[in-house]
Design a protein that fits this description.
The chain is an all-alpha fold. 90% of the residues lie in helices and 0% in strands. Keywords: Cell projection, Cilium, Coiled coil, Cytoplasm, Cytoskeleton, Flagellum.
Length: 366
């Protein structure tokens, strides 16, 4: 329980020291940035607009404005120093403003940056040293002991591996010796086969030379025969060429004769076609005249035909009317005759019926 309380108390102390160091580093950083803020108030305004630190902007602007107004005076102004101290105190109390102007830390000089790095390194070293404890040291010793044992195990494994490598090297030497013996055996066999192959190659060369000589002799005979055949073909070719030249001359003369005849025919055709064209033109003029007369005749014919058709229609209508009247008269006469016949038949039948009735009455009276 006491150890726990001591450790908690130590941790609280360590955290307090580290917090103080952190705040000191932040205040140092803001102190180094302050000159740049005074030189670039517009940049500061851009960074602090719409934040909770706009009040510092007001302090800086008032300080800059009063410093400009009093710049012609050589005496120091106590209230300006007071304003400057107030600005510094404000930034030290509100060092979190660095979160809004982080990019301005890049404008620091190399010396300022090295100073900040030194303080940050001091913070890291202090944190490491303060957070060390007896338990951590014991753990470190334990880790070293474990590493030592692992190292011993590795050494044993190395020795074992070396022994295995030695055995493998000996086995490899035996295998190499066996391979060398096998290679020597194969080399002897190869040399014997080379000798045998050389003998066979020489025999084949002799056979080939003999065959080549025979082929050469046969080729010479064949070449002589071909030469004689070539001379014979040349003689025939010259003879055929002479005959062809004669025939070509005859054909050329015949062609010239035909060309002369063709030219005379063309000339005659041109004369004939000229006469025919004149005759055709005359006939065309006559045709136009006759066509004009025919058109006039057709106009007159159309009028006459129209009049004729009108007369024919009138006559047809008259004949149709007369025919209808005749048919109507015929039908009326026929109907009258039919009525008369029926009426006569009806009267005769009635007379017969009355006569029969009269005879019946006389018989009853008797």
């Amino acid at each position: 329980m006491d150890n726990d309380e001591l450790s908690l108390e130590r941790m609280a102390q360590v955290n307090s020291v580290l917090r103080i160091l952190t705040e000191s580093i932040e205040k140092l950083k803001i102190s180094l940035i302050l000159p740049h803020l005074f030189e670039n108030p517009i940049t500061l305004r851009q960074h602090l607009d719409d934040t909770d630190y706009r009040y510092c902007e007001k302090l800086i602007m008032e300080y800059i404005r009063e410093r400009k107004l009093k710049s012609h005076s050589s005496d120091s102004e106590p209230h300006l120093d007071y304003r400057l101290i107030k600005i510094i105190d404000y930034f030290h109390e509100n060092y979190n403003v660095l979160e809004c102007i982080t990019d301005m830390a890049d404008d620091l000089s190399p010396k300022d940056k090295s100073l900040l790095q030194a303080f940050e390194l001091l913070h890291k070293i202090t944190e490491q040293r303060l957070k060390k404890s007896a338990i951590s040291e014991l753990n470190k010793e334990k880790k070293i002991h474990e590493i030592f044992h692992e190292n011993e195990t590795v050494k044993k494994n190395i020795k074992m591996t070396q022994r295995q490598l030695k055995k493998q090297r000996i086995n490899l030497q035996w295998k190499l010796a066996a391979k060398e013996a096998m290679i020597q055996k194969y080399e002897e066999s190869l040399s014997f086969r080379k000798y045998d192959n050389n003998v066979k190659i020489k025999q084949e060369i002799i056979k080939s030379s003999r065959s080549i000589r025979q082929i050469h002799a046969a080729s010479a005979v064949k070449q002589k025969e071909l030469q004689e055949e070539l001379e014979h073909i040349k003689a025939n070719y010259e003879k055929v060429l002479k005959d062809n030249l004669k025939q070509e001359k005859i054909a050329r003369d015949e062609k010239n004769k035909l060309l002369i005849q063709l030219q005379s025919l063309i000339k005659k055709f041109d004369q004939t076609i000229g006469d025919k064209m004149i005759e055709n033109m005359n006939l065309q003029e006559e045709y136009e005249k006759q066509k004009q007369l025919f058109d006039e005749f057709m106009l007159e014919y159309s009028r006459e035909e129209e009049e004729y058709n009108r007369i024919v229609r009138t006559k047809e209508e008259e004949e149709k009317r007369k025919q209808e009247e005749k048919i109507l008269l015929f039908m009326m006469n026929r109907a009258a005759r039919t009525i008369q016949r029926r009426w006569l038949r009806f009267r005769k039948q009635r007379s017969r019926k009355q006569a029969k009735k009269g005879k019946g009455k006389k018989g009853k009276k008797k």
